[in-house]
Specification:
Shape of chain A: globular
Oligomer: heterodimer
Number of helices of chain B: 0
Radius of gyration of chain A: 13 Å
Strand content of chain B: over 45%
Number of strands of chain A: 11
Strand content of chain A: over 45%
Number of strands of chain B: 12
Shape of chain B: globular
Order of helices and strands of chain A: EEEEEEEEEEE
Order of helices and strands of chain B: EEEEEEEEEEEE
Structural class of chain A: mainly beta
Number of helices of chain A: 0
Radius of gyration of chain B: 14 Å
Distance between the termini of chain A: 37 Å
Largest sheet of chain A: 7 strands, mixed
Helix content of chain B: under 10%
Chain lengths: 113, 114
Amino acid sequence: EPEVTQTPSHQVTQMGQEVILRCVPISNHLYFYWYRQILGQKVEFLVSFYNNEISEKSEIFDDQFSVERPDGSNFTLKIRSTKLEDSAMYFCASSAAGVREQYFGPGTRLTVT
Amino acid sequence: GDSVTQMEGPVTLSEEAFLTINCTYTATGYPSLFWYVQYPGEGLQLLLKATKADDKGSNKGFEATYRKETTSFHLEKGSVQVSDSAVYFCALSDRNSGTYKYIFGTGTRLKVLA
């Protein structure tokens, strides 16, 4: 069964460093998303991406964040200068055209020290 | 804005007990509703969904009915197993939102004891 994959599973970085979280969505899906879950809190929407552009972003998704689909398979989330409060689990998700059901990856745990 | 409210956890039950996890929502449009499950150390897995009023989603013995009149989508299971121990998230996707983004509840941790 097709699945969304994410790498790395755990990333530790120092405050102020740049990180790139990688996702491979399901191959025939057209909508891509990033969510984050701070430990013990709810899963929060960050950004949605369709047709090679951002279709919606939350207020969390400030200028420090960017997304890219550099090739036909990968979908990346970049944080330019990490802060302590960026420590969270980051989930990538994808969905097919015309369908609201999203499939989630296993997540990347980002720890900023 | 849209929101989802779930009952506080943790919920601790004995094996074979009946489970209800409450979920209510507010939405400006006509949302699709979902339950996701997160097992320890894993990602979010779709458990069930409903797209219109009175639809019943079901999977693996779990059920939830889309109740427009009470804006609810409570999760139920008649007889829980130890393997059902996980965190359960209720979510909505508003049809008025062209981006299909999800709004999640806070999650409810379920612990089932043998």
